[in-house]
Specification:
This protein has 569 residues and is α/β, with parallel strands linked by helices. Helices cover 33% and strands 23% of the residues. The strands form five sheets. An eight-stranded mixed β-sheet has the order 7-6-5-3-2-1-20-21. A six-stranded mixed β-sheet has the order 8-9-10-11-12-19. It has a six-stranded parallel β-sheet with strand order 15-14-16-13-17-18, sandwiched between helices. Strand 17 (336-339), helix 11 and strand 18 (364-367) form a beta-alpha-beta unit. It is globular. The chain starts with a helix and ends with a strand.
Length: 569
């Protein structure tokens, strides 16, 4: 923007609408990616992943479609990170391979975790990372960006204030109002001051919108953890989120108090603990940390294993221990296994599977419940949401970070506090709202589909591949082998049908296969007798005949794969 345009904007003659939209984080828990865009500048807030549910076979991560950002790459002024959780930083290796991010602004701990993540992913791109704190003010194009500290389940968590020519936008990031935090206090006074000065649009996280009251303080968990240590007769396995730094420090403190040794398992847990120790967020005496090879030489009642896997992830440390994949460490009677976390939506089945297996091996399994208060959420409950809305007193409100019913409940809370219904926007990923002259209204829509990551391929797996995997998982596969002579337009032998993951082997399967082969043979003989046909015609006929027959007989739709071998001489 040149000087003449700036003068016109100040005089109010020229308009510069500010677009606000999410590429991820709306209608889901995870994949948080929010954008603020003007005519000349664009900033991104967070770049998270979502972990796949069980029905996404073979998918490691779900990330946003970055097509719009790629098309507007010349406008991007920076990526701002609110804190170091995976659903806010996990997609950074993918986004920087797709588009040019000139600079990443992040709190100190998040910056360290990002550097570690880029190193682990062997990212060769030179990424500029600038650390900020609660006193930083950053100019990103025409946007003035400032920060306020919030309490969450990881240190160095911040909300962000963006001042634009058209009004002020505030996003809370992930937060709860913890008045007795393990770390620094939430900056309620600064939040209130921003509200007094005037907030046009507030983006507020909605994860715990179903829970009335206040989220318990992280300090409430300390007593429960110590009680578990007192009661555990043998080894203690404790699984929690690797990024829950406050919880890890409490587990360490209890380990020291009860004179036990600590083994840390899981790559993400080890990386996070190393980073946090380096910057002083976690304090562990060196002599207390042992390797998995040392387990046999340590008495059972003197050992704590801190590991990943609280969400039932099949490749996480706890699942690998349960499945006997670690040579020196197996579950045995007398072990106590603690899940110090709450299930992420969609992970309940995976967690139950691990819990059942642990119980079969004789372990005493403890999960978070009204009987064992071993986890405190890092997210605001309804009373904290009310206080947050009162402090900022926004003209317009957009709930973010939550499934649709969470967003709607948060919107209802805002309406009950006097924000007009027309000033509240419950949106989906890709929906735009526009801030202009301190007023907000609905805008256009941009592409915001899911991209499924299998391995490290940034191109992702297409929806068609995911659909095929779902079919294979649910209905199996049928292959049909055809041998023909295209010169004489005739079959050389009867078609051969084989099924995989479709029907049980035995008499019924043999019967279905024989009848399918007969129907394919009859249909192909009829097709080949009429005129010259293409291989495509043959494949379509096979798929049509076999799919109709098997659906009629089994009410299932297996994947049909015709294989054609043609006589060449």
């Amino acid at each position: 923007m040149n000087n003449a345009e700036e003068i016109l904007l100040i005089m109010g003659i020229m308009k510069n609408p500010i677009k606000i939209y999410a590429l991820g984080g709306l209608g889901e828990v995870g994949k948080n990616t929010y954008c603020i865009e003007s005519q000349n500048d664009l900033i991104i807030i967070d770049a998270g992943v979502k972990f796949p549910e069980d029905d996404l076979v073979g998918v490691d991560y779900v990330i946003p479609d970055y097509t719009h950002l790629k098309d507007n790459n010349n406008k991007i002024r920076g990526l701002f990170i609110t804190h170091g959780h995976e659903d806010h930083i996990g997609a950074i290796p993918f986004i920087i391979k797709t588009i040019n991010i000139p600079v990443i602004y992040a709190p100190k701990l998040a910056a360290a975790l990002i550097r570690q993540k880029l190193e682990d992913k062997h990212i060769k791109t030179n990424v500029k990372i600038v650390e900020y704190d609660q006193d930083s003010i950053i100019r990103a194009g025409e946007f003035k960006v400032s920060f306020f500290r919030v309490t969450h389940s990881i240190p160095d968590s911040f909300g962000i204030c963006i001042d634009t020519t058209e009004g002020r936008i505030v996003t809370t990031g992930d937060f709860k109002i913890d008045l007795t935090p393990v770390g620094p206090d939430i900056e309620l006074a600064k939040m209130s001051r921003l509200g007094v000065e005037g907030v046009d649009l507030l983006l507020g996280e909605s994860t715990n919108a179903e829970k009335e009251g206040w989220t318990p303080s992280e300090r409430n968990v300390i007593q429960s953890i110590n009680e578990i240590f007192d009661d555990a007769p043998g080894r203690l396995f404790i699984s929690t989120f690797s990024s829950n730094i406050s919880r890890i420090q409490q587990i360490v403190d209890a380990t020291i108090k009860h004179k036990r040794k600590l083994v840390i398992l899981g790559r993400s847990m080890q990386n996070t603990v190393d980073c946090a120790r380096k910057f002083g967020y976690i304090k562990i005496p060196n002599e207390m940390i042992k390797e998995v090879d040392d387990v046999k030489s340590i008495k059972d009642n003197e050992l704590v294993i801190l590991c990943t896997g609280s969400q039932g992830e099949p490749m996480a440390a706890l699942s690998r221990i349960t499945n006997g994949l670690l040579k020196d460490l197996h579950i045995q009677p007398g072990d106590t296994v603690v899940f110090s976390s709450s299930p992420i939506p969609g992970n309940g089945v995976s967690i139950s599977r691990v819990v059942n297996n642990l119980t079969r091996y004789g372990a005493d399994v403890i999960t978070n419940s009204i009987f064992s208060d071993i986890h405190s959420s890092g997210h605001a409950s309804r009373q904290e949401m009310r206080l947050n809305l009162k402090l900022f007193n926004p003209k317009y409100f957009m709930p973010i970070h939550g499934e649709y019913h969470m967003l709607k409940l948060h919107a209802d809370i805002a309406e009950s506090l006097g924000i007009p219904k027309d000033n509240i926007f419950v949106l989906a990923n890709g929906d735009e709202i526009v801030l202009q002259n301190h007023k907000v209204f609905e805008g256009d829509r941009i592409p915001a589909e899911d991209v499924y990551i299998d391995g490290n391929d940034i191109n992702g797996v297409s929806t068609a591949v995911i659909r095929d995997r779902k079919v294979l998982q649910d209905d199996g596969m049928v292959s049909v082998m055809i041998c023909l002579d295209s010169k004489t337009n005739s079959l050389l032998c009867d078609p051969k049908v084989q099924t995989v993951g479709f029907v049980s082997y035995g008499k019924n399967e043999d019967h279905l296969v024989r009848h399918a082969q007969t129907q394919v043979k009859d249909a192909l003989n009829e097709l080949l007798s009429t005129n010259r046909v293409t291989f495509s015609d043959i494949k379509n006929t096979v798929r049509s005949v076999v799919s109709k027959y098997y659906f009629r007989k089994t009410q299932r739709n297996p994947m049909i794969i015709p294989l054609i071998m043609n006589k060449t001489n």
